[in-house]
Fold:
Amino acid sequence: MSAGGIAVQLGLGRLRGQVSPAGRRLAAVGAGLLGVLFLLALLAPLIAPGDPSAPAGIAYQAPSAEYLLGTDDVGHDLFAMLVHGARVSLTIGVLSALVATVIGLGVALAAGWFRGRVESVLMRIVDLALSLPFLVLVIVLAAFFGRGLVTTVLVIAAVLWARPARVLRSQVIKVREFQHVVAARGIGASPLRLIFRHILPRVAPLGVAQFVRSATIAVLIESSLAFLGLGDPSRVSWGNILFFANQRSAFITDAWLWWVLPPGLALTAAILGFAFVGYAVEEWSDPRLGATPRRRARTGRPARPEAADDIEQAPGTVLDVRDLVVEYGPPATAIRAVDGVSFTVAPGSIVGLVGESGSGKSTTAMALLRLLPPGARVVQGAMLFDGRDLRALPPSAMTALRGRGVSLIPQSAMNALNPAYTVRRQVAEAAALLPRTAAAADARARELLEFVGIPSARQDAYPHELSGGMRQRVVIAMAIANEPHLIVADEPVTGLDVVTQVRILRLLAEVQERWGAAIVLVSHDLPLVSRVANELVVMHEGRIVEAGPAAAVTERPEHAHTRALLAPLAVQEGLA
Structure:
């Protein structure tokens, strides 16, 4: 196998398991097309020895064993021109894309890391480059700087670098705020070390995707410039072949069949090859692009669980969960995150769903709202709410229920709030889910923010201007905007200091008392949750290991895992 073939196989091997089957098929087709073209370019001196720009026979010879594609009007071997032209077209395309990606990546790293004036100046230059007419700019630069391989590469790179810079900058800004990067900054790591050790490796996959995308455009631009007569006349390329075919009236003779069609098909194969590989590389750099869940069964009808018509909700409950099973991954290798969970929630009560990380408590909470991530699915059980099985509701009915009948307090308040809008506007948006006028929704937002402890002077603040505890209060205000019957609070106090945690839990208790909403309070902190919960449900490895009234569970724990979770409480009492 050739070196190119080995590289292709290694590349496809790395894509396997990270790219969807459709993406891998496209990658295989694209790699095959590019492999053939690059092989022709590499072996051009062996396949067609001699100077392709020198006449080799008489004019307009038809294809034969000696001249596979015949000759042009001055006797050039068209097959030799085609394979040698592949070297120039592909070299310019790859080098231009490489230069453009390196420049774009450098600008993205500088703008995304240093921010401030550096970012402002660089991004204004990017905006200017993107606003100029693309083709006109290429033609003007090519006409001004002249012809030549190096000049062509630099001209094409000069118009391609801005888009990779904009795309990669946003990724740099995101990675810059990762906790491990912040920690490295905290221990005194230099900017260069942070950029090359922490930022660049995380951005590199997206940079590869931008390179492949740029190569697709660069091959097309090179051919366009050459076709317009702005290419290097001393080098044979696919664009030059088409330029001379057009100049010498190949279309009025049968010569166009072997003079125009082969380079046109080669260009098409190169563009499709880069594009197909690019699709797979983009999916590899961001697996979410290929993580689209299957929406329809093989019959073509929507895949929806059967309603639990034979199961009646337990009397005196707002939520009745029966034998819930949630799995991650394909059925053959599925991991069971929730295994046969059953519990009930009475109206106006607070049920603490507690357990260590990985116990399945947050998965259970997300299953109740049908907000499981891609790859996770409920495979068994019923979730009965106000007499209806949430699992069997159509998507439109479930959407209408969220924020009205059932509401969520998410785990991270900062991620749940839009940084571009004030907190009052976001609470008003939640209040507007019910038929309210804009003025009524705004008045409701003011009332709720006052209730949760956000004074009127801070209600027009943006999320980043508030503390973590205040942001959590805003999220609670959004959750109770329409007085839902059930609130699912997923780790609402994680990451807050102890005093703020207690205040947030007291606020949830006030919400329960004032509006009578039932609350499923998800947490890993059993001693803290036991202060406000009426019932406790303890989970371990996807199963419920103990459940009962909060006082009974904390005073007389029966399971070893429950006793382990209560250990901090025992320590606190001992210190007291």
In short: The first strand starts at residue 319 and ends at 328.
